[in-house]
Amino acid sequence: ILQNRIDLTILTTIFPRSKGDYSGAFLGRMVSSISKYKNINIKIIVPSSKESPLYEEWKNNIKIFRFKYWFKQSQQKVAYGDGKGTILNLKSSLLSVIQLPFYFFSFFYSVLKVWSNTSIFHCQWSFTAIFPIIINKIPFIKDKPIIVTFRGTDLRILPGWFNKFIIKNLTILTYVSPIKSINRYKDNFGSDIINYVKRINGKELFCIFDPLDEKNLNINDKTYLDDLKIKGAKIILSLGRLDELKNPIYSLKIIRSLLKYRTDFIYIIVGYGFLEEKVKNFISINKLDSYVKFEGAKKNVADYYSNSDLLLVTSHFDNVWSSTIAEAMMLGCPTVLTDAGYTSDVFKDGFDSIIIDKYNSENAAKKINYLLDNENLRTDILKN
């Protein structure tokens, strides 16, 4: 492949709405990484949001085509909506349901327009593969190879029969966590996913981790948190989207329990998501305002990592593999992780992380308290 000119078209339901946008940032990093191969021309097909331009060019031959699917771009509700994600947008907005047929048609038409100038389709989330698969089945149209990257949402929410149809008609399947962890969805899928893929001739299964872009993780200010008037306090950091999978309320329960042991700390929440109001209400009701600071979405995440004593990750589903964890480790911030999914298969408690129970906030607070008091342990974890 790398010896020839390749026209790669990436299909996705969400992508940075402008350069540096936090929405879909990991996809932005992936595309930038691929674009370093000078013989690859990249096109992105993605729905537009009310803030985004319909056409944009990035360096290294990246062209972004954002399609409209409603009379006014500002009224579009399916893909971005209120920041809840497509499934929740459809559940909470009648307008988004009405727009859905227009969304499908516009997406299909956008793929059809670039068909003749595409060598390979790379589909983010299994849903987006439906368009090139349908076109591949049209007589007299030359088939194109299709790569599909499955993510948890696909196999957790979409019907198993739909994902089986996608797998039967693609060329390569990739997954962004260790391959064995894909089988956590086998009940919904109806069979062992890895063995199912192996039984289908011509299909390959690969694991591709989301890339880290070290250039975007420059530390600008090693005293950044001094500006928040918390100098001298231990800093516990949470960084990521605020949704049910990330379980931010559980992290606040841990903080509430930690106050029984110490008060010389500040818990900083950096992120955005539809649980923001619920998080703020929990802070207010439990009178945690003096110990919790909600920062919202930020771009200078390296400054937060470098100024924090630990990163608290409380997902109740899995922590394998999280870009946030990888970033924290790279920048020297010890990680405290809930024992969810395949976490214990990848990390070792007391060696390269501290692993806490995902249901017992009291025990979790005790382990965090011990870690904050034990500088040697934090140093060993960072070395390991």
Topology:
Layout: E1 6-11, H1 25-34, E2 40-47, E3 55-58, E4 62-67, H2 86-92, H3 94-114, E5 120-124, H4 130-136, E6 146-150, H5 152-157, H6 160-168, E7 172-175, H7 186-189, H8 193-199, E8 204-207, E9 234-239, H9 248-258, E10 265-270, H10 276-285, E11 292-296, H11 301-307, E12 310-313, H12 323-330, E13 335-338, H13 343-346, E14 354-356, H14 361-373, H15 375-383
Parallel strand pairs: 1-2, 1-5, 2-4, 5-6, 6-7, 7-8, 9-10, 9-12, 10-11, 12-13, 13-14
Antiparallel strand pairs: 3-4
Helix pairs in contact: 2-3, 9-14
Summary keywords:
eight-stranded mixed β-sheet, 18% strand, globular
Task: Give a written overview of the molecule.
With 384 residues, the chain is an alpha/beta fold. The chain is built from 15 helices and 14 strands. It has helices at 25-34, 86-92, 94-114, 130-136, 152-157, 160-168, 186-189, 193-199, 248-258, 276-285, 301-307, 323-330, 343-346, 361-373, 375-383; strands at residues 6-11, 40-47, 55-58, 62-67, 120-124, 146-150, 172-175, 204-207, 234-239, 265-270, 292-296, 310-313, 335-338, 354-356. An eight-stranded mixed beta sheet has the order 3-4-2-1-5-6-7-8, with helices on both faces. A six-stranded parallel beta sheet has the order 11-10-9-12-13-14, sandwiched between helices. The longest helix is centred in the first third of the chain and has 21 residues, at 94-114. The protein is globular and about 70 Å long. The model has no long low-confidence stretch (mean pLDDT 89).
